[in-house]
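Bug report (template v2)

What were you trying to do?
Predict the complex of my protein with 3-acetylpyridine adenine dinucleotide.

What happened?
Run completed; filing so the output is reviewed.

Input:
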Amino acid sequence: MSSIQPKKLTVVGAGYVGSTCAHLAALKNLASEIVLIDVVEGRPQGIALDMNQSAAVEGFGSRVVGTNDPVDTYESDLFIVTAGRPRTPGMSRSDLLEVNGRIVCDVAESIRRGSPDAIVIVVTNPLDSMVSLMRAKLGFPAQRVIGMAGVLDSARFSWFIAEATGAGVADVDAMVLGAHGDSMVPMPQYCTINGVQVADLVPQDEVDAMADRTKKGGAEIVGLLKTGSAWYAPASASVAMAESILNDAKRLLPCACFLNGQFGFEGLYMGVPAVLGREGVERIVEVPLRTEARVAMQKTAGAILDDVQAMRDLDLM
Ligand code: A3D
């Protein structure tokens, strides 16, 4: 087991995604103190007690603190924000804009007040607009406010590729860029199995079908669960980003980053490959895009800007 760092990680929202994030982070000894905060009284405290009792079996050294008081989150190094409603069948992520937008505004206020140097990973949907809103409310440098989506969407694509090819999923690398929604942009050109292009192993129509299933990957799970959305893979993806930041591992991961001219876009958050380290987004990597992907990135930017406009119309930002 890795040694423990004297760091404070706060997970906001002790629901399915948040509590799974806190447990995964503890299992990985990611931070000496892991704070789990929720508005529901007793829930984060109960979950924290349960998790701390699992430490005796698992042997992790992180201490989990459950709370309803934002003061307990002060001076955190990193936040993973999962507070907000998930989708139910028939809902698009954008249907959550108003209710989750108000929650993100509240959460931003306590982060700004008590942890002005923190890095913030946003998970709450609709992801691209919620991360834009978080940044606007925090006023932090953009490299310290990042959205989680690309790691999850790429992991979903990887799983479908592994299933279709029979390859071990650990050997599969996939990449999905753009918005976290129907307009996301799977990048078959960057999908490989131990360096071998998936496009060289699988007919194009099968690759297209896997890319399409990836775009609908969240809705497929919502349809099966009926009462909420996915949480295991979303939590794994969020903790992978947190791990790269807290351990300064400088992993190249697709995440929602603020673009300042990269890929030809200015002033919006979008899923792009980025190096994550102790400073947050340390570099955005402008991989070459084929014409098809360029057109898809334009379309995805349009969808993101529509949601940002909807937030302005709601007076959220
Ligand atoms: P759920 O299990 O309902 O948990 C949400 C928790 O947030 C609940 O316990 C609420 O009490 C809590 N909460 C509400 N307001 C606040 C607040 N102001 N401060 C602290 N806690 C609060 O949902 P979930 O865990 O399944 O999903 C959480 C969010 O993540 C939803 O918006 C999902 O849509 C989103 N999500 C995003 C992805 C992405 O890939 C971006 C994947 C999965 C889920």
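What did the reviewer find?
Residues 150-313 form a domain with the L-2-Hydroxyisocaproate Dehydrogenase; Chain A, domain 2 fold (CATH 3.90.110.10). The first helix runs from residue 16 to 27.
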